[in-house]
Amino acid sequence: MKVLVPVKRVIDYNVKVRVKADQTGVELANVKMSMNPFDEISVEAALRMKEAGQASEVVAVSLGVQQCQETIRTALAMGADRGIHVLHDGELEPLAVAKMLKAIVDKEEPGLVILGKQAIDDDCNQTGQMLAALLGWAQGTFISRLEVGDGELKATREVDGGLETVALKTPAIVTTDLRLNEPRYASLPNIMKAKKKPIDQMSPADLGVDPAPRLETLKVVEPDKREAGVIVADVTELVDKLRNEAKVI
Amino acid sequence: MALDQETLNQLLETVRRYVDERLIPLEEEVARNDAIPDEVSAEMRELGLYGLSIPEEYGGLGLTLEEECLTMFELGRTSPVFRSLIGTNVGIGSQGIVIDGTEEQKQRYLPELASGELVGSFCLTEPDAGSDAVSVRTSAKRDGNGYVLNGTKRFITNSIKAGVLTVMARTDPDNKGSGGVSSFLVDAKSDGITVGPPYQKMGQQGSHVADIFFEDVKVPADAIIGGVEGQGFKTAMKVLERGRVHLSSVCVGLSERLILEAVSYASERKQFGEPIAGFQLIQAMLADSRTESYAARCMTLDAARKYDAGEKVPMEAACCKYYASEMVGRVADRAVQIHGGAGYVSDYPVERFYRDVRLFRIYEGTSQIQQLVIAKNMLRQYAATQ
Prior knowledge:
The complex is a heterodimer.
Chain A: E1 2-6, E2 9-11, E3 33-35, H1 37-51, E4 57-64, H2 68-78, E5 82-87, H3 94-108, E6 112-116, H4 127-135, E7 138-148, E8 152-159, E9 162-169, E10 172-176, H5 188-194, E11 199-202, H6 235-245
Parallel strand pairs in A: 1-4, 1-6, 4-5, 5-11, 6-10, 7-10
Antiparallel strand pairs in A: 2-3, 7-8, 8-9
Helix pairs in contact in A: 2-5, 3-4
Chain B: H1 5-33, H2 38-47, H3 65-75, H4 80-90, H5 95-100, H6 103-115, E1 120-123, E2 139-143, E3 146-157, E4 164-170, E5 181-187, E6 193-195, E7 209-220, H7 232-268, E8 270-271, E9 274-275, H8 280-308, H9 314-339, H10 341-344, H11 349-356, H12 367-385
Parallel strand pairs in B: 1-4
Antiparallel strand pairs in B: 2-3, 3-7, 4-5, 6-7, 8-9
């Protein structure tokens, strides 16, 4: 079975994100970018399937600016076989991404698409679900465990009440949660070999998708600064403040 | 062949991340247990760190010396014992073969050294031959088709784990100079070899040095590096030239970590109602450390580039090793000073680093030997112009 893994280029999780002065977005100039951590987990899951003989090929896909190729290279260095890059310079919303991924899935015919449950930049948590709907495929979201059987997957989902295990007929979509695995470090020899692995480049038009955003961003602002707290003398004062100042009880 | 910028960036980023996420959190435990966990050495093998300097055709990464130094700036930001684990395979334990070995020797040893399956150690120092390296006493006597080795090697890094030893031994007892010394590749499991107990050291717990005793150890004639007698000392000097630039980059990496520790402590520690980083006497120490660390970084890269361009750099390598090792000693001292009492107790890493860095001024040529090498080269260059 072929496994498709979409990987998104996002601001590195260690970077403190800053809002641009004109409030049009966040500062991206000279900011370190990396693969979305949930997507690393997806790549790792696909690679483990390949190592277990459950996957024949792992294809990494990224959509966006030219530098997305670096993100694809990271997946290739981890062990993915080849890459697909959809070059687009403007903003991309989850629906446009899902439509383009659908077009790629139609062409590549994978048995499984593994996506991160969300990207750490906009935290949308939509692309996997939208892709499943567009394809009419079974989906298992927020998975912390994946068992691959013949024509069927067992995916354990992290839900509010605990864990839920669902059986999915393939082809299927799963989205990964943090506890599914711990992604490997790409080995240095594999980083060097990744350069020789192929990356196909295409445009949204090649896929027949109009990527224009459906939403307009009015402004982006920093969250309010948290104000310093106060130390109260005793419980009576605390209750008094909660009742009369904060008005929460 | 030099890497393209994107691949090099990704390689350095991977090492940086591995150091931040895996090695730095383990530093204290490694020092306390005086051991690097087996899983970490396995990870470092998986990552390919053992093969940094070994050519690609023998299974390594074939990094240029400049690329190797950039990698060491990253790996240097944590306890130096992690570097030491791979250090002999990257440096003195493999480079004799890479630089002067026969094709057969390269094929036999380099792939396993690159993967880390085999650990290499470099055996030059003896009880009576340290800075005076020419007076090697370990003897290699002709015996039929091979040689018989007798002698003691002292303070040998990674000797406990080593599978192959690069051993300097005197093949010509009548030649007391460097021309009487040959370098041998010796299987560490050979009959007659015993490794002593590891020394208790001032710092760098987790890395082990021990003596190796050779008693009638038989080695075949083709164990001589390059197959020619009397070249051993030249091989050793070439290995050390490269190794000195490598070690300088480790000192630079560690100085950058120490500076980070010092800046971060100074920014948080409050005295007289404000962070001590606001005081100019603290700032002066920080600025001196940064300046010297930057100078050492620039020197190291300059020497590495010259080496990669094919120049002989014995003087530059000695300048780098001398300056970088002394520099990191001063930076560690200031870091402890900035921490005050907190720098003298082991709750903060600077206390451990202060002890760890002391070794850099001693091994692979003391500062005093580097000074002599530098001056000797200066005078030789001057004489050549007269």
